[in-house]
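Please review this pair:
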Amino acid sequence: MFAIPGKQAVTITPKAATQISKLMTSAGHAGLRIGIKKGGCAGMEYTMEYVNEPDANDEVVEQDGARVLIAPMAQMFLFGTEIDYETSLLESGFKFRNPNVTEACGCGESIKFG
C-alpha cells in the first residue's frame, strides 16, 4: 500500500526474526500482525497479535523464517520501522525503532506521530 519498490515496509533484526519464528512455530500461527491503536499517554500504541491467515490488505514482510503482517491502517505509520527484540536483566520484548515517531512517553509504550 505504501511500499517503495525494492524496499520492505519494515526491517526485522536477526534477534526479532528468531523470536517471531519461535512464536509462530510454538503456537502454530501463520504470522504476527502489527498495528497501531489509540491509547496511552502519548496518544497511540503498537498492537501485536497472532494471525492464522493474512488479510488481503496486510503488508507482508518475511525475513529469516519470520512473517510480520502490517495492518492496513498502520502501514503509513510503520514504514521505515526496525523491529528488534531485546533482553535485559529485568525485561525482554520487542522494540520498535520508528523514524515516524515525534514523541514517546517515558516508558516507551505510547507514541505520537507528527
User: Anything to note?
Assistant: Residues 14-27 form the longest helix (14 residues). The mean pLDDT is 85. The CA atoms of residues 41 and 102 lie 14 Å apart.
